[in-house]
Description:
Elements: H1 4-15, H2 36-62, H3 68-100
Amino acid sequence: MAIPAAAAAAYRAAAQIATPTASSAITPANVSPGSFSDFLSGAVKDSINTIHQGEKAAQAQVTGGANLVDVVNSVNAAELTLDTVVAVRDKVVQAYQSIMNMPI
């Protein structure tokens, strides 16, 4: 079974192949050698941006100003991002609980 973060990165990279901003995708191959906190804050900002794009596309469809295919793609990307964020949160909470349950 694939790790949700790796699946999200692969999906994002595949979705951005045809777009001119493919160099800005966060994938293991193009992560700069910065700190982990920089990587994490960039991933969070990308997640928030993806979710906002999905919301904007849904609102545009309600007013009749968007292509249905673009809306479906944006909403699917937002849903995948949210699922990934929830999975990472669950793993962090699980790791915290494991550390707290360790005998001293």
